[in-house]
Amino acid sequence: MTLEQLKMLKAVIQEGSIQGASNRLFKTQPAISKGLQQLESALGISLLDRSGYKLKLTQQGELIYQKALLVLDQGDQLSQMANHFKTGYEAKVVIAVDAMFDLERLAPIFDSIQKAFPLTQIILKQEFITGGIDAVVNERAELAISASEASFLEGFKLVTKHICTQSIINVAAPKMLARHPQLTDSSQLRDEYQIVVQDSGSLTKNVELDVQKGQRKWYVNDFYSKRTLCLSGIGWGRLPYFMVKDDIKNGKLVPIELADTKTQIEVRSYVMKVKGQVLGPVANELWHLISKLEISLETD
Could you give the domains of the chain? Predict the structure, then answer.
């Protein structure tokens, strides 16, 4: 049984005759007849009722025909996929995105890429702190979006483009702040739990950023968990403003005002790739579209 024989069966049924199938497939009528006979012989059943003027399917043939249509459709998909890869399009593209970045800003770009390149799999990996930079530098991702200082990025062979400036804000629940009615200094929070998201990369070399010496800490591996613990009153910490702006408006979280620490910090996010790396067409288009973003995510 071959795909070519199944195509002959499909053409005969849709055209209603061997002559019609012959014209459609640009094959001789004897070739069509022989192909159908070989298909029936391979399956061990009669697919066509040849007793009438017009060929029609037997009861068994009807069931086989429906399955044949599915097989032919899958065959077409395989051919399209093979042609897609043969012309240089990637099987997959990995992009590492800092969890601090608002993915809603990327959704229209991903939608555009999906429509333009439906056969290329886009793998989005959420990273923390230096995880995105680490993924690109060590070639685990073609592209990354990460918050960082420009001076830090200069230490790596990267091409970078600033795409976003946003705020991260120090917050706690009223329940926790009620324990400190005279709060003015970060040292007064040393015995409270600072909720810290762990770095998914290795570039900070276990150095904890924005954590005072002797501070009690509670480690989590994502911002959702951090926000949940802050809302519960268990601890406090910095969170992207877009994640907590509604919590602040409805009073579930309160910005922490301290004399020795900034309540709100502006961070710059960059899209990046390895310098000199030749990207495939899909990754290159993704780079082009993200590079055109110029977002300012400020507090209201």
Answer: 3-86 (1.10.10.10), 92-163+268-297 (3.40.190.10), 166-267 (3.40.190.290)
